[in-house]
């Protein structure tokens, strides 16, 4: 079935192949208590989509369902002609190679060097034995250095990740995600552990790099101001449902009330 | 003044809850201790006698006699060899066993047999295992080495599995998200997080194996222990003290080497 879907998409142009379609996605950690209760979203092949909503509303779960760090209970996630929700084993790994991810707490390999961290983005492409010997290809090496240049961390290649500041770590994490040559970039609260100035720098870097590569970005973010500033489209979630989906300009106080509840905080 | 009376300006109090289970356990423990001590039949007469025997024994140990240094050095070297080979082999075998026993990486049907093996290795004191191996492969260093390999697996594999169970899963998550195969997740996500502690366990086990290797000789499994036991039986207490001093020196030297090793792998 996947075969036919893939071949039909092969006719479509490269752009639409990067579109992400989520259909009726349900996730229950405990049966009967859905965290996501039937999410349906169609994300275009380009642009920044920000998902906003209160803590515990399933934003992280949604984004982790896309690259299957979390297994959805029901629903479809269509990307590049495959239903990601149905993949397993090798097929899943091959699909993950093309999905870059940036995390709230950077999730760097603390005891390894910055360079090793960036190269770890290629682990889907090299055998474990070569990975153990750190025998990455010359092309990968050059790419890693280029990416370190682009995120402004070239001078830190030899440093251990645990010696870096928060902003520096997130830059390395972005380089690692880009090292995968991703077709889509997922970011789970990428700025929540950073100060306001660094947050803006990180989002600048991420959106700029995504635009250069023409790949779509999905960002979980709870800072509404930042979401409005950087996103082309905002999806508001509340208790497992999508309650707003549209342009940043269209996001009014009434929507925020529906998303976060209450109104005292809005004044 | 009831605790529910909060409507008026009563000063409210907070009293931490008493853990009754712990209190009762402590009392029972104390009672048992007193009972056990009463079984011992310690009295001043026995203590005085013991002191005298002890003084006599210590007197005969002094001065230590290093005349048979050939025997001494031969025994020490053998003990050292037993310890080093047993630690190396034990560590190499512990790595896979520890991985298989880590519950956050492996399914239950893998961890259970691995944990069973670890428990089996830990169940018996090395001397008991050494007796078994002496029966199996005969007197000599091989029996002692095998006994200490078993002891090393029981210790290192267990601690290694625990170290793996305590790692940060965030790094694993990140590596899984790149589409890395399981082997690479281990190599990049797990190993760097546990390697430092693994070196620590290994150096501790080398230390422990050195001490145990001086003992398995008592049951004929090679090393300085055999010489020590023979000297005891022949009442050569001055030679005994020479052997004891040499063992202390050996352990101290190992301690120094251990410290250097740990500094290298900080």
Automatic annotation (TrEMBL), chain A:
This is Phosphonates import ATP-binding protein PhnC. One of its GO terms (molecular function) is ATP binding. Keywords: ATP-binding, Cell membrane, Membrane, Nucleotide-binding, Translocase, Transport. It comes from Sneathiella chinensis. Pfam families: ABC_tran. Residues 20-264 form the ABC transporter domain. The gene is phnC.
TrEMBL record, chain B:
It is found in: Cell membrane. The keyword Protein biosynthesis does not apply. It is a multi-pass membrane protein. This is Phosphonate ABC transporter, permease protein PhnE. PANTHER family: ABC TRANSPORT SYSTEM PERMEASE PROTEIN P69 (PTHR30043:SF1), PHOSPHONATES TRANSPORT SYSTEM PERMEASE PROTEIN (PTHR30043). Keywords: Cell membrane, Membrane, Transmembrane, Transmembrane helix, Transport. InterPro entries: MetI-like, MetI-like_sf, PhnE/PtxC. Residues 76-258 form the ABC transmembrane type-1 domain. The chain crosses the membrane at residues 20-40, 80-102, 139-161, 173-194, 214-232, 239-261. It holds the Pfam family BPD_transp_1. Coiled coil: none annotated. Belongs to the binding-protein-dependent transport system permease family.
């Amino acid at each position: 079935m996947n075969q036919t879907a893939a071949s039909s998409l092969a006719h479509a142009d490269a752009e639409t192949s990067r579109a992400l379609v989520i259909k009726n996605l349900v996730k229950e950690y405990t049966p009967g208590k859905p965290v996501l209760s039937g999410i349906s979203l169609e994300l275009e092949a380009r642009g920044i989509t920000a998902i906003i909503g209160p803590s515990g509303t399933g934003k992280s779960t949604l984004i982790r369902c896309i690259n299957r760090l979390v297994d959805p209970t029901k629903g479809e996630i269509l990307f590049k002609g495959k239903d990601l929700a149905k993949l397993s084993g090798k097929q899943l790994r091959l699909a993950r190679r093309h999905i870059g991810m940036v995390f709230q707490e950077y999730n760097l390999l603390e005891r390894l060097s910055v360079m090793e961290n960036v190269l770890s983005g290629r682990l889907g492409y090299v055998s474990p034995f070569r990975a153990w010997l750190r025998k990455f290809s010359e092309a990968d090496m050059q790419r890693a250095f280029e990416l370190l240049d682009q995120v402004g961390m070239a001078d830190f290649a030899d440093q251990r990740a645990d010696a870096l500041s928060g902003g520096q770590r997130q830059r390395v994490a972005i380089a690692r995600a880009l090292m995968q040559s991703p077709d889509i970039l997922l970011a789970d609260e990428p700025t929540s552990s950073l100060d306001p100035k660094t947050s803006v720098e990180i989002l600048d870097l991420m959106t700029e790099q995504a635009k250069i590569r023409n790949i779509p970005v999905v960002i979980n973010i709870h800072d509404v101001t930042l979401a409005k500033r950087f996103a082309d489209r905002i999806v508001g979630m509340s208790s497992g449902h999508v309650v707003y989906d549209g342009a940043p300009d269209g996001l009014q106080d009434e929507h925020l009330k529906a998303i976060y509840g209450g109104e005292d905080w809005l004044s | 003044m009831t605790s529910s009376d909060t409507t008026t300006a009563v000063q409210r109090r907070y009293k931490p809850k008493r853990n009754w289970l712990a209190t009762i356990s402590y009392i029972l423990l104390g009672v048992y201790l007193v009972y056990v001590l009463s079984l011992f039949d310690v009295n001043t007469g026995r203590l005085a006698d013991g002191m005298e025997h002890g003084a006599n024994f210590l007197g005969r140990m002094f001065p230590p006699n290093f005349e048979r240094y050939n025997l001494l050095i031969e025994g020490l070297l053998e003990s050292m060899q037993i310890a080093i080979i047993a630690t190396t082999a034990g560590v190499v075998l512990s790595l896979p066993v520890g991985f298989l026993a880590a519950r956050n990486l492996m399914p239950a049907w893998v961890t259970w047999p691995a944990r069973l093996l670890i428990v089996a290795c830990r169940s018996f004191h090395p001397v008991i295992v050494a007796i078994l191996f002496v029966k199996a492969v005969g007197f000599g260093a091989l029996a002692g080495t095998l006994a200490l390999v078993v002891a090393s697996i029981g210790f290192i594999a267990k601690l290694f599995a625990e170290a793996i169970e305590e790692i940060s899963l965030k790094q694993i998550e990140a590596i899984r998200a790149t589409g890395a195969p399981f082997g690479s997740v281990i190599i990049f996500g797990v190993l760097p997080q546990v390697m430092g502690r693994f070196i620590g366990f290994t150096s501790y086990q080398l230390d422990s194996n050195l001490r145990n290797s001086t003992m398995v000789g008592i049951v004929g499994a090679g090393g300085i222990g055999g010489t020590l036991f023979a000297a005891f039986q022949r009442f050569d207490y001055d030679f005994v003290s020479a052997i004891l001093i040499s063992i202390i020196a050996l352990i101290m030297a190992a301690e120094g080497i251990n410290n250097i090793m740990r500094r290298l792998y900080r």
